[in-house]
Write a structure and sequence with these properties.
Number of strands: 10
Helix content: 40-55%
Family: Belongs to the glutamyl-tRNA reductase family.
Number of domains: 2
Distance between the termini: 14 Å
CATH superfamily of the largest domain: Glutamyl-tRNA reductase, N-terminal domain
Subunit structure: Homodimer.
Largest sheet: 6 strands, parallel
InterPro entries: 4pyrrol_synth_GluRdtase (IPR000343), 4pyrrol_synth_GluRdtase_N (IPR015895), GluRdtase_N_sf (IPR036343), NAD(P)-bd_dom_sf (IPR036291), Shikm_DH/Glu-tRNA_Rdtase (IPR006151)
CATH topology of the largest domain: Beta Polymerase, domain 2
Order of helices and strands: HEHHEEHHEHHHHEHEHEEHEEHHH
Number of helices: 15
Structural class: alpha/beta
Shape: globular
Strand content: 15-25%
Pathway: Porphyrin-containing compound metabolism; protoporphyrin-IX biosynthesis; 5-aminolevulinate from L-glutamyl-tRNA(Glu): step 1/2
EC number: 1.2.1.70
Length: 356
């Protein structure tokens, strides 16, 4: 196999990131990129001295920057991206100092991306949603013009690997999404056939929850969303009822479970709202599952009598219960990834990486 040329070596691949394993949700939400701001972010990174290409991946469980640069070393690239995050999110010195990031380059960065796309680095092992989330992040960068030959090839190869893992192993069997794990939790607390559920938000995560609820026979589903048309669309599809966003509080006394997943940058469910509702409910128990990042539900809600609040990090224990069978597939998945890294020329003697 020929050695990579000098031109390949000049474009260093780096990844800087944080995820649910390194960083709690109260910190992750500070560094989450709203989808509307991602085009601006990838252009800002590409505009940093020495940087050439960039993709930003921001989900409820991770924030990762993938980039290529011509700086003297990967360490320089990592430092520049860390400094960018500190500036972008205006982190105070004490928060910047406490920020825990993983810094990967060359083959390690490629390997990490392959594992992410395959669902091997997810809170829910074998998660299926992450494949679509990475595709969306890549497409957004592609449309913005911040990818070229190197990252285009890297991400296309990652999608090939993800499909291969999905098709050749059973890693994705069972509950393999945050949404389905949220429904697992609801099912532990309530008989879903007698359960009335409100979904706050009508995005992909809410759709996953609704599909899972429907398949398990939930008694009724209410969907509330800022865009009422989207709420109607999802509710119709799931044989539920749509509600305007400024009216959802009026139906809270009817429901047993709230699952919230909006893209709001601030709390949308607050203690004073729930306090009022609980009085009307005569303190009948209410389960609230917040799977948004930034969080939708003020943590103080959990202090109200009869309310049981779980955020996305609290779902970890439930997700772990379903891991055992899928963990048996890990060795097969890792072998596929290593074979593909070698096939695509990402691993070479001395650890250098060919990006062409």
């Amino acid at each position: 196999m020929p050695e990579p040329t000098d031109s390949h070596n000049r474009s260093g691949l780096v990844c800087v990131g944080l995820n649910y394993k390194t960083t709690p949700v109260e910190v992750r939400e500070r560094l989450a990129f709203p989808e509307a701001q991602v085009p601006d972010a990838v252009q800002q990174v590409r505009g940093l001295p020495g940087f050439e290409e960039c993709v930003v991946l921001s989900t409820c469980n991770r924030v990762e920057l993938y980039a290529t640069h011509g700086l003297p070393s990967g360490r320089d690239g990592h430092a520049a991206l860390r400094d960018y995050l500190v500036r972008r999110f205006e982190l105070q010195p004490e928060h910047a100092e406490a920020l825990v990031l993983y810094n990967l380059d060359s083959a390690e960065a490629a390997r990490h991306l392959f594992r992410v796309v395959s669902g091997l680095d997810s809170m829910v092992l074998g998660e299926t949603e992450i494949f679509g989330q990475v595709k969306a992040a890549y497409k957004l960068a592609l449309d913005t013009g911040t990818t070229a030959r190197s990252l285009n090839k890297l991400f296309q190869q990652a999608f090939t690997v993800g499909k291969k893992v999905r098709n050749e192993t059973t890693i994705q069997r069972g509950s393999t999404s945050v949404g389905s794990v949220a429904v697992d939790l609801a099912e532990k607390v309530h008989d879903l056939k007698e359960c009335r559920v409100m979904l706050v938000g009508a995005g992909e995560m809410s759709r996953t929850c609704a599909q899972s609820l429907l398949s398990r026979g939930a008694k009724s589903i209410i969907v509330s969303n800022r865009s009422y048309d989207k709420a109607v669309e999802l509710a119709t599809e799931m044989k539920g009822r749509a509600m305007k966003f400024d009216e959802w509080e009026h139906a809270l006394h009817e429901v047993d479970v709230i699952i919230s997943s909006t893209s709001a940058p601030h709390f949308v469910i607050k203690p004073e709202q729930i306090e009022q509702v609980m009085r009307k409910r005569r303190w009948e128990p209410l389960l609230i599952i917040d799977i948004a990042v930034p969080r939708d539900v003020d943590p103080a809600v959990n202090e109200i009598e009869g309310v049981y609040l779980y955020d996305i990090d609290a779902l970890q224990a439930i997700a772990d219960e379903g891991r055992r069978e899928r963990e048996r597939q890990l060795a097969s998945c890792e072998r596929i990834i290593e074979e593909q890294l070698e096939k695509y020329g990402f691993t070479r003697p001395g650890g250098t990486v060919a990006m062409a």
